[in-house]
Design goal:
This protein is of the alpha/beta class. The protein is built from eleven helices and eleven strands. GO terms for molecular function: DNA-binding transcription factor activity; transcription cis-regulatory region binding.
């Protein structure tokens, strides 16, 4: 039986994302459109593919079986698309870069300005997230990451090691002399998990959740909060040096953390001239 592949893609996205709204965002469609496509597929197959339990969609048994059959077909379609893109010889078109908040705000603008001068026909999309983009599913063409990928389909170039220091405002740190290992200063973190505590435990600080009175996943806000004398933050050295309002904290203790920077791309796309142009420019200037 023939069925509309667009309907199948809507089903796959909904199954993977768990809702019509999330699937619509992934597919760049409206939520009603995705809902109609899934309903059309259910009508074509004469089965119910989802059931709603509370506010969430769950696959029925028929939906689970269909997912097993369609997922490999979708992967094959993605790989075929990547292969076709990889043989493109034209230095124009869109290239998507996945970058963290810090990379996007403090490292990419100057590089994108250079790219616009060197290759004005290349259109640059930047996906900004501290989450890892899935290059194999086409969420981005190139990603800047802090770790080396393990997937054999991806190629990676290590750019450099980045020292990460503690930073705070001069006013806040001038008062930090009263702090001790038993009475640490306030820290601004992504959350109140034990990750930061583990990084600083070799120094001798026994940090508890109460030592993180402010937490946010939006890292640029860390910088602004630190400028308002509200605590100490982790910041890459090259970014910290861009902010005259901030200085290194407890510098004599040494660098508490070092991060790697990797540039990652799907291997098929390295033969694509426009992606290769962007990749090489990023590698040179990052």
């Amino acid at each position: 039986m023939n069925f509309d592949w667009n309907n199948a893609k809507a089903f796959l996205a909904t199954a993977q994302q768990g809702s019509f709204s999330a699937a619509a965002k992934t597919l760049e469609l409206t939520q009603p459109t995705v809902g109609r496509q899934v309903s059309a597929l259910e009508k074509e197959l004469n089965v119910a593919l989802f059931e709603r339990i509370g506010k969430k969609l769950h696959l029925t048994k028929a939906g689970q079986e269909l997912l097993k059959r369609l997922a490999p077909m979708n992967e094959a379609a993605i790989q075929a698309s990547l292969t076709a893109l990889g043989h493109s010889e034209v230095i124009e078109g869109r290239v998507t870069i996945a970058a963290s908040q810090i990379d996007a705000l403090y490292r990419l603008p100057a590089i994108i300005a250079l790219l616009r001068q060197q290759a004005p026909k290349i259109q640059i999309d930047v996906v900004v997230s501290n989450e890892v983009s899935d290059l194999q599913r086409g969420e981005a063409d190139i990603a800047i990451r802090s770790f080396r990928p393990t997937q054999p389909e991806l190629i990676a170039k290590k750019i450099r090691d980045i020292p990460v220091w503690l930073y705070g405002s001069r006013r806040y740190l001038s008062a930090s002399k009263q702090y001790s290992l038993s009475a640490p200063p306030d820290f601004i973190g992504f959350d109140r998990s034990s990750m930061v505590s583990k990084q600083l435990s070799p120094i001798g600080w026994d940090l508890q959740p109460e030592h993180f009175p402010i937490a946010t996943m939006f890292q640029p806000l860390h910088i602004e909060l630190a400028k308002h004398h509200l605590g100490i933050i982790f910041l890459p050295e090259d970014v910290g040096e861009q902010h005259a309002d901030l200085i290194k904290a407890f510098e004599l203790m040494g660098t508490p953390l070092t991060l790697e920077m990797w540039l990652v791309c799907h291997q098929e796309l390295r033969t694509n001239k426009r992606v290769k142009t962007v990749f090489e420019c990023l590698a040179r200037h990052l």
